[in-house]
Amino acid sequence: MRLGLRWAGPLAVVALALGAAVVVSQRGDEGGSSPPSAPSDEPGEPEELVEVTSDAPRHATLDELVGAADLVVRGEVASTERGRAFGQPGGTTIVSRLVTLQVDEVLAGTAPQAGTVVVEEEGWLDDGRALVVDGAAPTRTGDAGFWFLVEVDDPDLPVYTTVGAAGRYLVGPDDPERLEGADNDDPLVAELVARTPDELAAAIRTAP
What we know:
- Helices cover 11% and strands 41% of the residues.
- It is mainly β.
- Strand 5 (94-109) and strand 6 (116-125) form a beta hairpin.
- It is globular and about 50 Å long.
C-alpha cells in the first residue's frame, strides 16, 4: 500500500494515495480503541519500515531554512518514546514519536530553559510499522546532529516539529566530520551535507 503525507497541523498526517480522507489529530489518551503498542528503538529485531513522501514545504537556501525555524539547535537524542495517536475511526492512524533532545548549543532562536526540547515526529502506523518520511529514518537514542524546529502551539503538550525534510542533519555514526540528511534529492539537503558539522554550525550562526 502506497502512502503519502499531507503537511497539516503539528504533524504531517497520513493519507492513502487513492484519495481516502485525510486523518485528523486525535489525542491518544482520549476514549475509543487504542492502536497497538508501538515498538521502542531499543536493540532487538529490526523494525519493518514504510517509506512515505510528504508535501512539506521546501526551502531553497540555508537562510530560508533558518528563517522558517523558531529554534535551531545542535544536540543529542537523550530518549525517545511513544507519543500521541493521530487518526479517525475507520481511517489510517499514526502514532507519533516523542524525541527528547539534550541541547548542546542554540544556534538560532531562544534557548529553552530546561536545556532540553521535545520533538514530535511521525512514528508508526497503527500496525506497528515504522515510518520513514521523505527519506528521514526514525530518530534513535544517541543520534547527534542539528535540528531546525518549529514550536507547536499546544498547551497540553509543548513540543516542536522539524520544518520539513530539510530540518534534520545527523552526524555520521562512523565519521564525526560527515553529516547525513534525509532527502539528498533536495538540492539544499545535498548542499548542507557536503559541509562538516562545524562548518554548518558556523553558517547557521551567521544566517540573517
